[in-house]
Amino acid sequence: MISALAVAAILGAPAMAQQVTGTPGSAGATSTIDGRYLPNPPPPFRGEINPNAVDSKPYWPAITVPPKGAPNVLLIMTDDVGFSAPSTFGGVIPTPALDRIAQTGLRYTAFHTTALCSPTRAALLTGRNHHSVSTGVVVDQATGYPGYNSVIPRDAVAIGEILRQNGYDTSWYGKDHNIPQWEGSQAGPFHNWPTGAIKGFDYYYGFAGDDTSQWQPNNLFRNTTPIQPFLGNPGWNLITAMADEAIGRIKMLNEVQPDRPFMIYYAPGGTHSPHHPTKEWVDKISNMKLFDEGWNKLRETIFANQKKLGVIPQSAQLTAWPKDLPQWDTLSPEAKKLYIRQADVYAAYLAYTDNEIGRVIQAIADAGKLDNTLVIYISGDNGSSPEGTVHGLFNEFAVANAVNPTVEMNMKFYDAWGSDQTYPHYAVGWAWAWDTPYQWTKEVASHFGGTRNGMAIAWPARIKDAGGIRNQFHHVIDVVPTILEAAGLPQPVNVNGIAQKPIEGVSMAYTWDKADANAAGQRTTQYFEMFGSRAIYHDGWIASAPPVHAPWVFTLDKPPADVMNGFPWELYNISEDWTQSNNLAAKMPEKLRAMQQLFAMEAAKYQVFPLADTRLERFISPKPSYTPGRTLFTYSGEVSNVPFPETGSAPSLLNRSYTITVEVEIPQGGAEGMLMTDGGRFAGYGFYLLKGRPVFTWNLVGLERVKWQAKEALAPGKHTLQFDWKVDSPGLGKGGTATLKVDGMVADSHPMPRSLPITLMWDETFNVGLDTGTSVDDQDYQVPFKFTGRINKLTVKLGPSEITVAEKEKIEKTRRDKQ
């Protein structure tokens, strides 16, 4: 859908009236620019140049500024927050910062995302549908089709670049899960990073990837430089550190350039797994006993709250509880105790995250700028997450490596849940409850449980209907045109020499006045698609094709090969049935057929084809690499913070034989420290000297650590160490035998029955000569554990990889059988 502004720009609308302050050509002059063509062409020199300066006249180009009255922008997006988790939309978890924006502005009850993080964020920043900007799935699952390759095209630059070139200061805090994996290391290139010319932010402080530990985020960057501010700083937490960074920039701008408008994009890791609140917040929420009656009762409480608040109609129906999730009353006392702990920690994480967001909002108020700040607070980039499986996870990397924790296994980490000793996620029953009153969850694009998220907008200088509720159907692509209209800026036709594809969203500003509270929605059509599940909205109707298998069910059953026609469809009149509870497909086949045809047309328009209901295959499918087929890696001295070994940026030791050879010099008095590591506390390996003795440790998702150790410390002088792993047979997670040698002599050799099949910790990195994240064994050493000798040469030689789709499916069967 093309907005009126975009149409006008494409048809050659005249330039916006220029606003100039000061005397043109003087050092203090400022000016707005056309805005349709960025950067603005260089202005002509209107002074005089003669051989002597005394006979010449200078003429300064004006400083570019936004139009008069353009607001500051604070764009907030939290992570994995279901519609009904926050108090603002009927939940029991206190979110006073979101309440504050809703009470001073407007609450939007029919705002939609894409059902998954990378796609939603690409759509949010560009104003185009997620397939239009090549982000049909998360970047880790990119495939070589235009709608899915994860490379946001240069003809769809983000709001940061548009505002920056119009004179705004632009900064980004938190998650960026939209960097192609093969460009995600410190080697770059950086044009797809937050500070690159596509996204356009002057400053970045955050983490690259899906998620990170909030206690020890080893994928944290300042602009494009890896940083570890948590080292030697006990109690440090990224949720607070992010707020401190944003507040610091607000204060700096207010003191150094007080008249310059700013845009802050604030995207915390909260509340994506791992759920890492501080102990104070866990204690506060636990004492409130919000979840002791369980998830079924919680849904009823939330549903009643929502009707009282008016965020759902009085006629809305509570959708049915799914048959494959247990009713609370059927659970054992031990399971209930565990699940309540999971909910308390999650709720503490959401409350903590909202509190720190509130500090940022208050900093703008303290600077005297909140009245003219457009605050858009989007509560979640998709519905609540089902990725914790039926019992929850003490360690997210366990299930990623075919270990599905039982209640008993999780209970071993009960007291540590939420601390840096866990990487936790709640059981899926809570996900369904936190999407009340809707069906389904994150990953499911067919129903509002996956795609409907609460949003509040405030701009006190412009929006006067404080506490108002808006029910118009809108989508995340509508945010960019809303910001542009508020700033008085056109949608650009050409940016950095590239003609821009039209923005596909529509502005929501038509809803801001109280008189227009019930205005007809201007988004009349919107498609949804994720992993083959899909929907099409049009004029108060929605046709929905839910997934064949729930995202928390692990099965070998194949989805239909014909995804387009093999999924069952449902039909809802949401003008009368707000929650998609009354399926009319059987009663109205002609209407359903017309909606299906409309989906096909929209899908063709926005690069949705080809459809596929695949997840694992996308993770292991070949992706671009700057070092394709690399099997030999050589290092000397220290190397740190190299991510994504699967792209060839660092050696990947999974599912293959390999040999690591290290030539070291040991000084007088001996040496210890890390030689080579990847991963950490929750999954990974380390090759190090411990009190002078060579040790190689494999950490198998925190449940087991297998070691090879020399008996004697290395004497001063030169030595050659070697760790040689031979797999028993090709395949995923196979066992094998490793031999540790010192100067050609066997120091230790024994088998390891199994290895990690799928992944190390994605928020940790590859290092040589030190360890920058968490240790693979806290009993052996603490980071950074720098090597105190000298590494003359370290070589890793990899054997062939044997990863196949069939082997991935075997892992899935193992996970299902263990449930």
UniProtKB/TrEMBL annotation:
<dbReference type="InterPro" id="IPR000917">
    <property type="entry name" value="Sulfatase_N"/>
</dbReference>
<dbReference type="InterPro" id="IPR017850">
    <property type="entry name" value="Alkaline_phosphatase_core_sf"/>
</dbReference>
<keyword id="KW-0732">Signal</keyword>
<keyword id="KW-0479">Metal-binding</keyword>
<feature type="domain" description="Sulfatase N-terminal">
    <location>
        <begin position="71"/>
        <end position="488"/>
    </location>
</feature>
<protein>
    <submittedName>
        <fullName>Arylsulfatase</fullName>
    </submittedName>
</protein>
<dbReference type="Pfam" id="PF00884">
    <property type="entry name" value="Sulfatase"/>
</dbReference>
<dbReference type="InterPro" id="IPR024607">
    <property type="entry name" value="Sulfatase_CS"/>
</dbReference>
<keyword id="KW-0378">Hydrolase</keyword>
<dbReference type="InterPro" id="IPR050738">
    <property type="entry name" value="Sulfatase"/>
</dbReference>
<feature type="signal peptide">
    <location>
        <begin position="1"/>
        <end position="17"/>
    </location>
</feature>
<comment type="similarity">
    <text>Belongs to the sulfatase family.</text>
</comment>
<keyword id="KW-0106">Calcium</keyword>
